């Protein structure tokens, strides 16, 4: 059982159906293959003792699935080689083959994390060597040895060690960009009552800069968020315009004067980061959905109007436009839905 300590299962959300009624039991055995890999395992140090360190780094999965070519997984070995492993169902595992080698000598670093990989598109890859350096790689068509060639187009030191959580490749105004989300667990000197650490998510956008005949990729924008718990899920929207974070505790954007880019006044006005509290929170059980909406201090119960329909909800304050309005995923019983004013000016809505 010790050999399965780092195994994990991940749900494929596209296959989940909330209206699915049951399963059929099959007694057919599942194909199971076993192959010893020489992965570059990095163990937690004595100063990485919190639950957040364990969550972020201790339970890290060394195998990286290529979602664009789902018969291929990758790992980084102790020599810094990115190895590809092809899976052929009902046949066998292919022998690992080297597709890329990190220029960094990983054994020379005491303070490092596991190397991490994320596949931004079918031809672009982001790699962290675990020492604080980020690589943007053009891979060609992966899985096809004839056209696959991993080539570094960008690499830069971005501070303390991190792991790559997510990345996306996109094109806007004929400019190719790759947005990368980096995760760190950092010491927090101001936190004297908690764990003494905070979680940092750095959202880095790398864009192709065209200057005469010189085409190169450079960091276009860096934004930092901080929170107090490792997110259960964090990803960049496909367009590169926003983040999706599921976390026990909230994250907030941090202002960093050193990382501000020179922009003209019009760009600053349109791109300025505004930190706002979520419009509402919600939680769900098998029987009901509870929505918590924050309302202004000057609003009374008589000013609030909540309307339920079999397939929708509308929340209005005074004569203002709807604060929240939309169609629900499935039908509800409007007569059983209720709402109350709770503590700290919160409107609690229960939908059955």
UniProtKB/TrEMBL annotation:
Gene Ontology cellular component annotations, sorted alphabetically: cytoplasm; nucleus
Keyword Cytoplasm among record annotations: yes
PROSITE patterns per UniProt: CS (PS51203)
This protein's record includes keyword Cell cycle: no
Keywords of this entry: Cytoplasm, Nucleus
Record's subcellular location: Cytoplasm; Nucleus
Domain CS: 275-352
Highest taxon listed in the record's lineage: Eukaryota
A Pfam family annotated for this UniProt entry: CS
Protein name, as recorded: NudC domain-containing protein 1
